[in-house]
Amino acid sequence: MSDQIAMTLAEARDAIRAKKISSKELTGAFVAAIEKARPLNAFITEAGEQAMLMADAADRRIAKGEVGALEGLPLAIKDLFCTKGVRTTAASKILGNFVPPYESTVTQNLWDAGAVMLGKTNLDEFAMGSSNETSAFGPVFNPWRANNSNANLVPGGSSGGSSAAVAADLCLAATGTDTGGSIRQPAAVTGRVGLKPTYGRCSRFGIVAFASSLDQAGPMTKTVRDAAIMLGTMASVDAKDSTSMDVPVPDYEKLLEGGIKGLKVGIPKEYRIDGVSAEINALWSKGAEWMKAQGAEIVEVSLPHTKYALPTYYIVAPAECSSNLARYDGVRFGHRASGARDITDLYEKSRGEGFGAEVQRRILIGTYVLSAGYYDAYYSRAQKLRTLIKRDFDQAFEKCDVLLTPTTPGPAFAVGAKTTDPLEMYLQDVFTVTVNLAGLPGISVPAGLTESCLPLGLQLIGKAFDEATLLRAAYAIETAADFKHSPAKWWNV
Amino acid sequence: MSAAPKSKTLKGETGDWEIVIGMEVHAQVLSQSKLFSGASTEFGAEPNNQVSFIDAGFPGMLPVINEKCIEQAVRTGLGLKAQINLRSLFDRKNYFYPDLPQGYQISQFKDPIVGEGEVFIDLKDGETVKVGIERLHLEQDAGKSLHDQHPNSSFVDLNRSGIALMEIVTKPHMRSSEEAAAFLKKLRAIVRYLGTCDGNMDEGSMRADVNVSVCKVGGYEKFRETGSFKNLGTRCEIKNVNSMRFIVQAVEYEARRQIEVIEGGGTIRQETRLYDSKVGETRSMRSKEEAHDYRYFPDPDLLPLELDADWVEAIRKTLPELPDEKKARFMALGLGAYDASVLVAERELADFYEEMAKGVDAKAAANWLNNEILGRLNRDGLSITQVPVSAAANNAIITMVGDKTISGKIAKDLLDIVWTEGGDPKQVVEQRGMKQVTDTGAIDAAIEAVIAANPDKVEEVKAKPKLSAWFVGQVMKQTGGKANPVAVNAALKTRLNLPDEG
Fold it and tell me: Which residues of A touch B92 (CB under 8 A)?
């Protein structure tokens, strides 16, 4: 059974198509593994019964020869995607027992391709966080632990439930969303692959919004190939999302193995910053060497406005979130405080009780930067910087095809280590937020282990809508890194 | 700029004051579905029956622009002779209210779809005033809070939530309550001609916020010369005035109030006021200090709205003839400015007039419509679309008057008959023997009969020729009103040997 759940998405797909295994058999194995792994707290809602029904339906389709791209393959869904008839929480108390009467476009695409939903994974509340510690449903523990240590580590965030589920073999692959690094950073610190597609590549319809101009759904997988397979199904132009783009979705899997001979790989010099571990920098150099060895040309490029990326992000994202989260007011759905005297009291009590500290902090920051008298000093300047950051990338991409950077400043850290200092927590996103601000695709590939045997990732950044090249480059890194490590399943005892 | 408009002043204790008025009109876009969702816009449905998850602000819902609403806004802009902005932005206006499900209204703040334009208003004294349009932008309507359904709860109806509104903002170019009402009337006529808003104020599809300020005489002219608002007084905004009559009342009350405050040594605070039509007063709602900070920012869910210039031109080509052009055409036919402006005030009325006036004297047709038709409609409480006598039937009546088949007097009787009983006017005239008598034999016989019966009057009229009118009346009576009065006059003159100037 452990062989089954350890399969990659591609292997499981091939096994199902070859009728070596049924979807029900595979799904049952995952349902059992999820139950055992409850100490990780990776799932907010387990949907085992529904998963078995979906698997059964998939098996019947397979028997009839109707085989979708993801037929019968069990997946985990970040609990930020609205799923029809299945509670959706955004890891917040404010949504209460909200059960959406509709399905997000991305998940609908997955079900249309035959995939099976195992459950809804934990996350930072409203996707705001880098450690999955802001969840109203409790923190998620990283399946990985440092050598000779029983200390619980964070799985990254905000898609920490998804990253833990993929790393712990609790699903073949998972969905995540990435607003400032929320797919790539958790993938990196759990030793797996996380792809944030170009803004507009996947529909945002039905995804609980955090920061609309930055949010983008993407896959979290065991391999680059799996990411290619998942993206092919998740991506679509959607009439229900005006910001989704009508750009052809190529067969990413087919384009994976083209090699990177002649590919120009940019190394942004501004990404050599203080506070990044020597191990990370060494790995970064190694990554460049791997690519060079496969025929790529390494070029140094400059992204001069990089140092403004975090401050810009922490103005734009909270501003949008302060407005996006205004709809959680206790009036129509979700948590409503009792005993309110009047409507203002109802708002204050419901929101005060329903939102956690980090979400409240961001709503306050966002409200502040949009307020009369501060708008020009903050929001307006942040928008200008965003334009400059975008331009940095445009200019860099005149010299190269992809950029290679670290994904995170360090490996997974201990639960509670950074919760008292939000600024230190925000630094987790230092290498990833620029990509969201510029709307570009980025991918994190597991590339090595620290001395204490914790995984580290390398990030590749691509041109807008050129995920094919990005995946091809990531595949080259993956091949060279030959990262075959998995965490010990300590929760199974 | 044309000559400064005539000064319109109010007398105060310290001298004369001028009123300055600007307006913000919310006009509901005529469309099948809402601005950003597919829910229906039909009026009068059961509460919360026309609400999509987008309108209700559910998690993960995204707005998608309704192209029809954009077209309607552009069409209105073109009708207001306004600048169409090929690139405009949607912004979020953030505030909390139970009838605002998203916690923000999607509106256009910095970059509206329509820029500066103009509207000409016609006043009773024949004066025409140009009112500048500052901008027109699209925004979502809010829902409705219902406070009278339950003793200790309020309910919310979201049917209106998300319906497209055009907010049309004028420059402060109106100078009296009459002008303010005339502006709204004209704007209403234009959007109804264009088919972009039904203009129905009772159902709330057109609502006005009226900005009123007062200044000492001369201030307005200085403002027009310099563009500086320093020359004007502090304004108060009167919210949601929903009839022409209330606009007149609200403006007059508010201007008086402001003059009294200033003359009493006080100052006007910039504030939002409500007009209470029951007592005929405006009341303070909130001051500028209490005003919301709406935290406008571009809506990241919507891309900038880019319009194709050719598309705009294609819309321009489908514009109907608008009131001003129609009025000019009517005046060219011989109608006076005021008559023409009354006729074009409603498209249905103008259409009715045009059909009625086919092949007959334009002025006679206008008089007939203004005096006879509108009078009767008013008496019966009907609108022009409910008129019981068709334009073609009226045309037949006027034609019969024109070719002297019937007299003007008979025409009115005829109209009364077909108004209440129906029927074809020509047939009625035939059947009831209403034709005018021009047969001189019959007229002469009637004259002889009158002379024979009134010898004394014959002597009197020879001394006082003006008395011939009495004879005309008697002859008309004899012929049952059917004699042609011109023929009667002529025959009398000959018979009684009266001088011509009688």
Answer: 323
B96 contacts A242? CB cut-off 8 A: no
Its ipTM equals 0.96
- The reply to whether A158 belongs to the active site is yes
Scan for tokens 């995540």, then name that residue.
A176
* 8 A C-beta contact, residue A186 and residue A26: no
User: Above 70 in pLDDT, residue B4?
Assistant: no
pLDDT mean over B115-130? 91
Backbone angles phi, psi at B361, to 5 degrees: -65, 125
Contact across the interface for A209 and B60, Cβ inside 8 Å: yes
Using DSSP's 3-state secondary structure scheme, residue B497 falls into: coil
Active site annotation includes A78 = yes
d(CA A155, CA A176) in angstroms, rounded, equals 13
> Residue A304: inside a domain, yes or no?
no
Q: Which residues of B282-303 are buried (b: 16+ CB within 10 A; e: fewer)?
A: beeeeeeeeeeebbbbbbbbbe
Query: Structural domain of residue A145, as residue ranges?
Result: 2-263+399-492
Taking only the tens place, the pLDDT of each residue in A44-97 is 999 999 999 999 999 999 999 999 999 999 999 999 999 999 999 999 999 989
Whether residue A143 is contained in a domain is answered as yes
What whole-number distance in Å separates Cα of residue A472 and Cα of residue A484?
19
- Least confident segment among B115-119, B190-194, B310-314, B482-486: B482-486
Q: Give the model's pLDDT for residue A1.
A: 53
**SS3 call for B439:** coil
A425-463 pLDDT, tens digit each: 898 999 999 999 999 999 999 999 999 999 999 999 999
In this prediction, residue B500 has a pLDDT band, given cuts at 50, 70 and 90, of low
CATH number of residue A412's parent domain = 3.90.1300.10
Stretch A305-315: mean pLDDT: 97
Per the structure block, which two tokens stand in for A227? 């990411």
Cα separations in angstroms, A438 against A198, A271, A375, A426 = 9, 16, 21, 18
Lookup result for tokens 């983008």 = A216
Per-domain residue ranges of chain B: 10-292, 321-431, 440-496
Nearest C-alpha neighbor of A173 from the set A320, A314, A10, A351: A10
Helices (H), A418-464: 422-426, 433-438
Q: What is the pLDDT of residue B5?
A: 45
Is A313 in the B-facing interface, judged by CB distances under 8 Å?
A: no
Q: What's the rounded Cα separation, in Å, for the pair A422 and B45?
A: 50
* Partner residue opposite A205 with nearest CB, options B62, B92, B94: B62
Active-site residue, from A22, A23, A24, A78: A78
Q: Is residue A270 part of a domain?
A: no
Lookup result for tokens 């452990």: A2
Mutation target vs A (from B295, B299, B301, B303; most A CBs, 10 A cutoff): B295
Domain-embedded: residue A107? yes
- Tell me the pTM: 0.90
Return the residue matching tokens 């299945």: A86
Confidence of residue B126 (pLDDT cuts 50, 70, 90): confident
Residue A209 with chain B: CB contacts under 8 Å: 59-60, 301
Greatest mean pLDDT among A252-256, B199-203, B338-342:
A252-256
Quote the tokens at residue B82: 């306004």
How does strand A217-221 pair with strand A193-196? antiparallel
State the Cα–Cα distance between residues B430 and B420, nearest whole angstrom. Answer: 18
Quote the CA–CA distance of B222 and B240 in Å, as a whole number: 30
Q: How many domains is chain A partitioned into structurally?
A: 1
pLDDT over 90 (residue B446): no
Q: Is A182 a catalytic residue?
A: yes
Mutate to test the interface with B, among A81, A329, A381 (most CBs of B within 10 A): A329
| Cβ partners under 8 Å of residue B160, min gap 6 | B141, B142, B143, B144
Is residue A169 a contact partner of residue A31, using CB atoms and an 8 Å limit?
A: no
For residue B439, pLDDT over 80 is answered with: no
pLDDT given at position B155: 93
